[in-house]
């Protein structure tokens, strides 16, 4: 009896039920967190799709109204041409009437002076009067047509004014939407460059000018080379990490890109690999873009450009000026 009590006292504690309870609680918490994240993603995606659809509808409506406006302008031009043609016909008829009236007066004089030809002159007079009556009726009809054309032109001009007002309103809305996107992008750009400036504060070869970050070429590359050095890769890794953090908070409907511009000094280069400074600057910009893509920056958000020696910061021939002109510039732009 004493031996059994002693053996039970020394047996190990059974902790398995407590461990299972703790693991179950942890799984439930993780499931709840994932569920909240999925719901938030769905709500944000719905709102962004709604905004894109509204902008597309505004663009379609503006295109439709622009087509209607163009058609109305063509109709007005055609009516103006017809009005001009009718006016010319009226002038022609008036001239004809004046000519006939002159002939009638001549015939009347002949009737008075030539009694022998009175019958023939009377017939001629009657014929001229009939022609005059016919021309008068034609003039009245033309005047009626002119009035109808003038009414139609006024109606088209009124419709044209309404269309122009609608187009102006839609244009204003579209500009407002684009300005809103530009302001949002500027805010994210400011945050990105602010964080990047803090991360690279101890680097004297990295300069901030307005909305651009400038790396001196010596920080990233050897002379006449487009292959990134280890120190340059470390600096670009910091940049890529900062950009990835900021890009997570940028809405998907903002079409932004990180543009990488390569620049050289004006001293000529001619090697087996590079025939000009233009080729060297472009190759360096592409090397930076490729490295950022390897660090996880989406390729659709990257662009490379080479400017050679054609956009210098300093135009003198000092070594210090050459150093400043050899640079890689980074900026966030809107596509």
Any key phrases for this structure?
single chain; about 325 residues; alpha+beta; Helix Hairpins; 60s Ribosomal Protein L30, Chain: A; 2 domains; five-stranded mixed sheet; 7 helices; disordered N terminus
Write structural notes for this entry.
This protein is α+β, with helices and mostly antiparallel strands and 335 residues long. It folds into 2 domains: 50-182, Helix Hairpins (Orthogonal Bundle); 200-334, 60s Ribosomal Protein L30, Chain: A, CATH 3.30.1330.60. Helix content is 70%, strand content 9%. It has helices spanning 2-10, 16-113, 118-199, 217-220, 230-247, 277-294, 319-325, and strands at 206-209, 212-216, 256-263, 302-306, 327-334. Helix 2 (16-113) packs antiparallel against helix 3 (118-199) and helix 3 packs across helix 5 (230-247). The protein is elongated. Residues 1-11 have low confidence and may be disordered.
